[in-house]
């Protein structure tokens, strides 16, 4: 039995694949857009891995590092994200993804050519604009290749792009930087976009909403931003889903941003050692965790949608414990063991979170809704986490006997936020049951 047959039969009123060819095409498209997403994540983790050599060369504080690794990119990422998400509801999505990928790959290479901090910052701004145009059209495509009852599994498989990308970005960047310098690592990351663009040429643009109970007619217009925001505001369940995903992103990806630097400062790992260690946690541990999660989603897809919320709340709350222990233990082995529990599970929420958004909004506002969710999540991940944790570390630093431990304490404090995210997912489940 193949993956297309492993899911329960369609619910009444839901369209489904008509033949095995449609299923094979859908999973090929899923593979391609997951590869795009993996490269998107890889480009972020490359710079995260290179924090220490960049800090040493340009003599930067943690606040300045937060600016170049997070805020410098995120301001443009989140600003461009919603307009580009609205655009994805109106244009050929395959071409839009290819253009976005080409743009952020080129700007990653520009970062590798930077000779000053300002040049590096400008390059990161360009990366942010490019990456903002990748995920909304990718998610919109998946919703038109996968029927409603199959989207939970599809988005969970898509989320495997996070451990793949972070592993490639962390391991490759660490090894290349150790041997040839941090600039070469960024140039290699930029060149990696070329083969993925070629893969995008093999997929086609589907009819929007073709698997929804009420497909978009040819004359149907996408909703405006005001209409989309109004619809989200009218559903309390959606509000809590957006809030839960935003906070879960901070308590997971946001903390992991700083993990290579934390391992270098508090436990004496080199750039290559920290990059490989975090890359293995993301790649092997995260791949296994998200693979198991995708299989679990086959069972969960047969249950009421509120169960997806409760599952996500349970995961988000549970990983708060190893997240705190990882930054509490002074012993290197205990800290690494805790990180091996925390990092692989930190992105399990992505699949259920995206599937809930797909199935609770209208087809005409799907890409825009994903863009809005990414806007709030990436404010937390790319602005609050790098800049906020970096600034907190700088504030703590003068009061410590060993100033290099300031980052560890800042991360320990920030790890508690996972419980807040879990609360919103529980509330979302209750609201879905009411609605």
TrEMBL record:
Membrane-spanning residues: 25-42, 63-84, 96-118, 152-176, 182-203, 238-258, 278-300, 307-329, 335-356, 368-389, 409-426
PROSITE patterns per the UniProt record, alphabetical: MFS
SUPFAM superfamilies: MFS general substrate transporter
InterPro entries named in the record: MFS, MFS_dom, MFS_spinster-like, MFS_trans_sf
Residue ranges of every copy of the Major facilitator superfamily (MFS) profile domain listed in the record: 29-433
Keywords: Membrane, Transmembrane, Transmembrane helix, Transport
Coiled-coil intervals: none
Source organism per UniProt: Sphingosinicella rhizophila
Main location: membrane
Subcellular localization, as worded in the UniProt entry: Membrane
Taxonomic lineage: Bacteria, Pseudomonadati, Pseudomonadota, Alphaproteobacteria, Sphingomonadales
Record bears the keyword Disulfide bond: no
Pfam families per the UniProt record, alphabetical: MFS_1
Protein topology in the membrane: Multi-pass membrane protein
Protein name (database record): MFS transporter
């Amino acid at each position: 039995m193949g993956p297309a047959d492993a899911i329960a039969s369609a619910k009444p009123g839901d369209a489904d694949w008509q033949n095995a060819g449609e299923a094979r095409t859908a999973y090929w498209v899923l593979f391609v857009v997951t590869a795009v997403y993996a490269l998107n994540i890889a480009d972020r983790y490359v710079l995260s891995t290179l924090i220490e050599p960049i800090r040493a060369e340009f003599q930067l504080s943690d606040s300045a590092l937060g600016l170049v690794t997070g805020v410098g990119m995120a301001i443009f990422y989140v600003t461009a994200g919603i307009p580009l998400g609205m655009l994805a509801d109106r244009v050929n999505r395959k071409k839009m993804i290819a253009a976005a990928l080409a743009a952020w790959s080129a700007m990653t290479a520009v970062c590798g050519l930077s000779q000053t901090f300002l040049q590096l910052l400008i390059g990161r701004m360009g990366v942010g604009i490019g990456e903002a145009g990748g995920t909304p059209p990718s998610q919109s495509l998946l919703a038109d290749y996968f029927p409603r009852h199959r989207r939970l599994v599809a988005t969970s498989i898509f989320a495997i792009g996070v451990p793949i990308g972070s592993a490639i970005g962390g391991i490759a960047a660490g090894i290349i930087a150790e041997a040839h310098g941090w600039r070469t690592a960024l140039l290699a990351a930029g060149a990696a976009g070329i083969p993925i663009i070629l893969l995008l040429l093999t997929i086609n643009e589907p009819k929007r909403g073709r698997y929804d109970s009420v497909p978009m007619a040819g004359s149907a217009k996408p909703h405006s931003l005001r209409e989309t925001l109004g619809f989200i505001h009218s559903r309390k369940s959606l509000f809590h889903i957006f809030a839960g995903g935003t906070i879960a992103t901070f308590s997971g990806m946001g903390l992991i941003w700083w993990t290579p630097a934390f391992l270098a400062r508090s436990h004496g790992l080199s750039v290559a050692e920290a990059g490989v260690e975090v890359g293995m946690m993301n790649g092997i541990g995260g791949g296994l965790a998200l693979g198991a999660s995708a299989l679990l989603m086959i069972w969960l897809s047969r249950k009421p949608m509120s169960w997806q919320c409760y599952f996500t709340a349970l995961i988000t709350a549970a990983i708060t414990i190893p997240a705190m222990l990882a930054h509490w233990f002074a012993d290197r082995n205990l800290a690494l063991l805790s990180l091996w529990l925390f990092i692989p599970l930190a992105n399990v929420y992505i699949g259920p979170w995206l599937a809930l958004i797909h199935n609770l909004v209208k087809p005409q506002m799907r890409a825009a809704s994903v863009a809005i969710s990414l806007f709030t999540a990436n404010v937390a991940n790319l602005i609050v986490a790098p800049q906020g944790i970096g600034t907190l570390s700088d504030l703590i630093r003068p009061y410590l006997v060993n100033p290099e431990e300031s980052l560890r304490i800042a991360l320990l404090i920030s790890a508690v936020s996972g419980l807040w995210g879990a609360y919103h997912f529980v509330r979302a489940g209750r609201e879905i049951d009411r609605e």
